[in-house]
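User: I'm curious whether this sequence folds into something compact or stays loose and floppy. Could you predict its structure so I can see for myself?
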Amino acid sequence: MSKRIVVIGSGAAGMSAASEAKRTDKDAVVTVITEDSDIAYSPCAIPWVFEGRTSWSELVMHDAAFYAKERDIQVLTETSVTAVDGEKKMLTAGGKEIPYDALVIATGSTVFIPPIEGKDLPGVFGVKTVRDGKRLESALKDAQNVVIGGAGVIGLEMAVALRNAGKDVTVIEMMGQAIPRIADADMAAKVQERLESMGIRFVMKAPIQKVLGTDKVTGVTAAGVDYPADIVIFATGVRADLRIPKMLELDIGQLNAVVTAPNMQTYRRGRLVDGVYAAGDMVQCQSSVVSGPTMSQLGSTAVKQGRVAGRCAAGGTGVFGATASPWVSALGGIEIGGTGMSAGLASWYGIRPVSGKATGLTRARYYPGGTPITVKLLADPVSHRIIGAQIVAGEDVTGRINWLTEMINHGVTAEDFAVRAENAYCPPTNMVRDVVLAAADDLLRNIEG
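Assistant: Here's the prediction. I'll summarize afterward.
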């Protein structure tokens, strides 16, 4: 009898799991169940639809018919799982009972909207799905003033997109800097300055206390001050969707996310649960920087975890290792990226890192088109191990962040880096000695004190 594999969730983790399960066992009966109407799309690209760089149709790579015909995977859209019986290996979805031999839970996360007065008024949005985006797009036709709650990466990407679309945008952030937690204040300030030059207004150290309006949004109150708004978008983070894990009584970790083994298999009361796997935003994983858990709610992480979960659910083997959670964003003509820990996050773990910093150009000085680049490295003051890096530049941040991620994942010290690191050179792509190496020199000087 063919193995029955059910995947709950159609995001990056879910669809990667389904495809990998089918590759591993071509005879398996693979079914995907999702509440969404669209599948196999990139939520990361949603902001760029609003400024016309792409379209909703281009965001969706494949539909259910494609998966049925090309990959022999059945996808049930707009279908909710209402019950799961782990002993019988049976779930209820769309009013029907569906048996499984292996289950992959990839329901992702939900947008966190603070429990404040007025949060349910028409004109308040959290944007995570294509459906959310289309609703917001419709509302924006009659709106000019937009308030975005939260100055994280998603909030800033939305701010830039809507400003480029001609809207008046105010970003309100409860912390004292943009991109809190994952970026240092000095690096985030460069991004904030660029966005302010575009006409985006920032209000810092001001949590949104209330959404104003009667029949629809008219503004918000933040730190006792009222700000007008036709639309309010909350980009205040996401939380793991734990509905299905709680039905199965799976172990939830200290970060309020599902605990898994390296092969993405789940636990119940400390014991592995046969045939049940989880992947994506709902899972806590192992940090490659410190001994302990971390959240890595990134598309790249979801795909990697989903592939492991799908392969193992189909009887294969695989491991998701510790992660440095590298990230990058393009904002207002510049890029910012990071990997490992920021100084703020390191302090949360009791580490007061030493830093090194350097500036330069992304191309040879005499070659046209180069843009400023700033590289910052962080190291543990005791072991001298590099634990974090951030880069702000006009181009080519991703490659440098990937390079530094490998160094962090391999436990390289500042001294090791100075000896082992090499860079390729071509005038149109970088300086003869990359700015990353200059930052490493500064880091060593500061360590040696």
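Summary: The radius of gyration is 23 Å. The longest helix spans residues 299-313.
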